[in-house]
Amino acid sequence: MAKYNAWQNRAQITAADTLDAAELTVDRGTFFGSILRTFSHLYWGDAMWMHRFHGTERPALSVDESPRLVADWSELKSKRMALDTTIQSWAEAIDEAWLASDTRLGRRSMNNGLLVTHFFNHQTHHRGQINAMLTAAGAQLERTDLIVMPS
User: In a designed cystine with 44, which of 65, 66, 70, 141 is the match (CB 3.0 to 4.6 A)?
Assistant: First the structure.
């Protein structure tokens, strides 16, 4: 799923790069409004989970502020690619024992296997929103099926 995540993020960035800057910030009536704000929230979520799972730097803003964490498209692309590399390295290093253990989230602990499932599901959910917005803006997208993912 880490490889799929990186592949789909690259594909969406490539599609978004065909749009002018104004198209990235148009409020399209989705939960986070625009393509850019949704990309920013998705980046925030992935960075927060990597902080929890892997000890990377915690995002500076709260979840409510996440759509404005990275407001510059070029900066967001760079940060996204770097984070995807981190996610892939982390995913290659985890083992069954870690997946069977728990992570503390505030006052409760949750199974890491379940949390990793949530992590990747969250990505898919918001990339689906981004795909819909990109399509509405006229961008051409790659297929999203796991079975056509490049090896």
Answer: 66
Q: What DSSP character marks residue 105? A: E
DSSP letters spanning 62-119: -GGGGGGS---HHHHHHHHHHHHHHHHHHHHH--HHHHHSEEEETTEEEEHHHHHHHH
What domains are there in the chain, each with its CATH number? 2-145 (1.20.120.450)
pLDDT digits (tens, 9 = 90+) for 60-110: 999 999 999 999 999 999 999 999 999 999 999 999 999 999 999 999 999
Q: What pTM did the predictor assign? A: 0.95
Neighbours of 47 (CB within 10 A): 23
